[in-house]
């Protein structure tokens, strides 16, 4: 099977992002992705910390949160279409992401002390557990596994989109129930967190297949893809903990 026909659910690892790079001499490596991932995580941590400092000094961080969210979406879209500029766009994405995550973490901390740190711990633990499962081949990424996970991700994203849209217009439906702390909402977020965790396996598998076959600058795109999944895990962990605490 040709490398560019491989399928994954993460938009950073889609076929259109990666095809056509097999002839490049300077190749992507796993060690390069690891270094860039650590660098971007440090950037996220820096702007998240800076947001906390601003909040403690009395600044209104709502603007920072929304600016971070807009920046995250903007730089993600640019990264998806302009791969050669990923070395600039992905760090900017990480900085924007830090503002957004820092803001929502502040709100979580103000209501539930210690919860953001616990969610970070869950995210880190999930990453290494999934890496162990992948490397030890306890869980194998097969064609059926990918197909089921892609369908699950599509369903979850559709439900989230409908829930957010209906909540925006203040329309009450079964989808808006997911915004409260009911057992149904907790169950949905638990399933979503599980799917997010298993998405890491697809990311690991895709990187493993693409290493030494695509250009060096695609390490930044791979880093972006991993960050997208890790953020999903973190946000789901926060949502689950918040809803359990409210019960």
Task: Name its key features.
globular; 247 residues; single chain
What does the secondary structure layout of this molecule look like, with pairings?
Layout: H1 15-18, H2 30-56, H3 62-81, H4 86-111, H5 115-135, H6 143-168, H7 183-210, H8 218-246
Helix pairs in contact: 2-4, 2-8, 3-4, 4-8, 5-7, 5-8, 6-7, 7-8
Characterize the structure shown.
By secondary structure, the protein is mainly alpha-helical. The chain has one domain. The chain contains eight helices and no strands. It has helices at residues 15-18, 30-56, 62-81, 86-111, 115-135, 143-168, 183-210, 218-246. Helix 2 (30-56) packs across helix 4 (86-111), helix 5 (115-135) packs across helix 7 and helix 5 (115-135) crosses helix 8 (218-246). The longest helix is centred in the C-terminal third of the chain and has 29 residues, at 218-246. It is globular, with a radius of gyration of 18 Å. 34% of the residues are buried.
């Amino acid at each position: 099977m040709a490398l560019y026909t491989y399928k994954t659910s993460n938009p950073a690892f889609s076929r259109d992002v990666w095809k056509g790079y097999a002839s490049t001499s300077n190749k992507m490596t796993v060690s390069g992705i690891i270094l860039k991932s650590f660098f971007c995580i440090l950037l996220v941590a820096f702007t998240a910390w800076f947001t906390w400092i601003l909040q403690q000094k009395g600044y209104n961080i709502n603007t920072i949160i929304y600016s971070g969210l807009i920046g995250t979406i903007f730089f993600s879209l640019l990264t998806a279409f302009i791969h050669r500029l990923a070395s600039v766009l992905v760090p900017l994405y990480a900085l924007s992401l830090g503002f957004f995550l820092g803001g929502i973490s502040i709100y979580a901390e103000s209501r539930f002390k210690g919860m953001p740190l616990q969610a970070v711990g869950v995210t880190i633990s999930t990453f290494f557990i999934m890496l162990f499962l992948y490397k030890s081949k306890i869980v194998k990424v097969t064609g059926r596994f990918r197909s089921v996970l892609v369908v699950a991700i599509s369903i979850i994203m559709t439900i989230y989109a409908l829930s957010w849209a209906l909540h925006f217009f203040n329309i009450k439906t079964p989808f808006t129930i997911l915004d409260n702390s009911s057992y149904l909402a907790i169950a949905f977020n638990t399933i979503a967190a599980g799917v997010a965790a298993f998405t890491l396996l697809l990311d690991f598998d895709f990187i493993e297949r693409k290493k030494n076959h695509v250009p060096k600058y695609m390490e930044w795109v791979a880093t972006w893809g991993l960050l997208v999944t890790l953020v999903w895990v973190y946000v789901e962990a926060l949502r689950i903990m918040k809803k359990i605490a409210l019960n």
